[in-house]
Amino acid sequence: MVLLRIRNITRVFGALIALRDVSFEVNRSEILGLIGPNGAGKSTLFNVISGFHRPDKGRIFFKDTEITGLRVDRIAAMGISRIFQEPTLFMQETVFENVFSGFHRHYREPAWNAFLHTPAANREEAVSRKKAAEILDFMDLGAMRDELAANLPHGHQRSLAIAIALACGPELLLLDEPVTGMNPSETEVMIEKIRQIRERGVTVLIVEHDMRAVMSLCDRIVVLNLGEKLLEGPPDKIKNDQRVIEAYLGKQVI
Amino acid sequence: MKLPDSLALVKAHRYKWIAIAIVLIALTALPLLIENNYIKHLLIMACVGTILGMTFSMLFSAGLITLGAAAFYAVGAYSSTILVMNAGLSFWAAIPLTLIITAVLALGFGAVFVRNAGVAFVIITLIFVQVVVLAVAQVEFLGGWGGIIGIPRPDPIGKVNFATKTDYYYLILAMLLLTIVVFNALYSSRIGRAWRAIKLSPNLAGTLGINPYRYRLLAFVVGSTTASLAGCFYAHYSQSITPGAFGGWLSIYVQLYAVLGGLEFYILGPAIGALVMTFVPEYLRIVKEWEPIITGVLLLIVILFFPGGILGTIRSPQALNMSNLQSLLKWLKVLLPHNKNG
Ligand SMILES: Nc1ncnc2c1ncn2[C@@H]1O[C@H](COP(=O)(O)OP(=O)(O)OP(=O)(O)O)[C@@H](O)[C@H]1O
Ligand SMILES: [Mg+2]
Q: In terms of CA atoms, which chain B residue is nearest residue A73?
């Protein structure tokens, strides 16, 4: 079953065509890799899906509902969470508060009751606190819950970003380079976490440069190059494709 | 021996409530201990300043910096004056009506203003407060630049007839406490968390389903309405208002209260800042003409060297901005005459 449908997306920055007529689909409960050399347009596509950029052409459907051009918070509320390529956290808050803030869209009690601190609203918050602690434990951040996010080492900041996204309870999780800059053992742990996240029923669309990670993790892979979709298919097919190798080599030579 | 976490928390909680109780008793008993009417006046104005400073802090908590905190203070003052003097309402009926009027106005203006966060919002509010003042001054019905005099005292309730400063003190204290309770309830709820999220990272807040626009607008409306409550009080306390009282430096003062006390302390910061800024100049016997100049310089010093304000610097002294201090010292060395032969 198709969860996310990307149809003929084009996005232009001035004279630069960052995305040209890109189409593909993400199936429910799969881990789909999105790869391509630097500047291929991967992050731009994430920005288009999550509502930060409006596409110049094309449409996007999530669960058969069109989400093209919706506001960022509306798209998030529909069940799409994304982490950013650059560490984006509430740096001056504690690790716990960061994750706790992620529960915003779950509250059913009206804001007025939250303001009055009615028993029902307080109970709702207590549930969120408990779940936030669970998510922290799941991402191995339990011991750091009172640290400021800014003081965490890079790898833990990545984990925290994912923890916040999980707090949102997404159906689709967009990960932009979750293991880049990590050492092999950290990478191994993170890959395992992403697998577990999928087992919890979350569909994952992941951008990553670490090819070993991508190949071992993904069910299917879409390759972007210079804003165009080069090819898509299972890891084995992508690994040995001449065009993919050339795209990456070409970039390295330059 | 180390206390278990939960026990320590309960104790900390208890101390907090004891501290609050002591402060409340002290604030209530204060006018009984003070005979000097002028000092009572200063206390009253410090309370007004605290409320205004708290409105600045509320917008700041949502990532908005306003230089127009006085705009709706003026709207509140003029609105309740007109409602009482021209429409013949009692002061007590004029207050809720004024709050509703300001809330509607703030919603209308805010809907446009908060679309632009960042520098644009700062400039818009700066211009807005000046436009409000200039517009009021042009309206003959509002008394022009001369303002309105002879504004009646609040109608008596029982024996309290507002003939003394003490009565006014208790009125503004009640308003201040009400404001604190309401603001605290907001800050400690998911609304306050959403504000902080927007301030710290609008992008991340958006991906969590928080609509930055709507929450900024809420902060703007609540802040503006609260400022107008202080305005109602001020008009019937000073019994005369002029447009000039709301323009110029007032918004800068309000900002200074919050910045000096400590920007990260949304309630206590403005209180400390307003107290210091109201009483210190008096005791230093600073000439009125010099006050704005000293205020301006003080604001610059705090922003450059003590970004945490009084409370922030006490909490973590390392927050002192040493790099700025050092560059100031270097600068002074260059500037000060030194012996070239030596
Ligand atoms: N906001 C923007 N304004 C102008 N140009 C942009 C903007 N965002 C991205 N670009 C350009 O679009 C192209 C694609 O960028 P994008 O960030 O999507 O690449 P990427 O595939 O994520 O690369 P990387 O692997 O380095 O993260 C680049 O040439 C980039 O400079
Ligand atoms: Mg990128």
A: B209
pLDDT tens digits along B55-102:
999 999 999 999 988 999 999 999 999 999 999 999 999 999 999 999
| pTM, two decimal places | 0.90
pLDDT at B159: 87
Q: What is the pLDDT of residue A199?
A: 95
Mutation choice for B interface testing from A86, A115, A124 by most B CBs within 10 A: A115
Domain boundaries, chain B: 18-30+37-247
Q: Is the pLDDT of residue B1 over 50?
A: no
The verdict on ipTM greater than 0.90 is yes
Any idea what the Cα angle at residue A92 is, between residues A87 and A94, rounded to 5°? Answer: 90
For the stretch A19-34, pLDDT in tens is 999 999 999 999 999 9
Helix (H, G, I), strand (E, B) or coil at A206: strand
> Across the interface, which of B191, B203, B208 has its CB nearest the CB of A111?
B191
The length of chain A, given as a count of residues: 254
Q: Express each pLDDT in B156-180 by its tens digit.
A: 988 888 989 999 999 999 999 999 9
Starting at the earlier edge strand, list the strands of the sheet with A220-225.
A80-82, A172-176, A203-207, A31-35, A220-225, A228-233
| Contact (CB, 8 A) for B274 and B44 | no
Tokens 């600073």, residue? B286
CB A77 within 8 A of CB A106: no
**CB-CB contact of B113 with B59 (8 Å):** no
Chain A residues 174-203 within an 8 A CB cutoff of chain B: none
Q: Which of A101, A121, A168 sits opposite B197 (nearest CB)?
A: A101
Residue B198 CA, chain-centre distance (Å), reads: 21
A72-76, B6-10, B22-26, B106-110 — which is least confidently predicted?
B6-10
Tell which phi-psi region holds residue A6, choosing left (phi > 0), alpha (psi between -120 and 50) or beta.
Answer: beta
Which two tokens mark A109?
Answer: 């009690």
Q: Give the alpha-carbon dihedral of B327, B329, B333, B335, to 10 degrees.
A: 70
| 8 Å CB contact between A160 and A139 | yes
Cα A234 to chain centroid distance, Å, stands at 20
| pLDDT single digits (tens) A179-219 | 988 899 999 999 999 999 999 999 999 999 999 999 999 99
Our separate counts of H helices and E strands in chain A read 10, 10
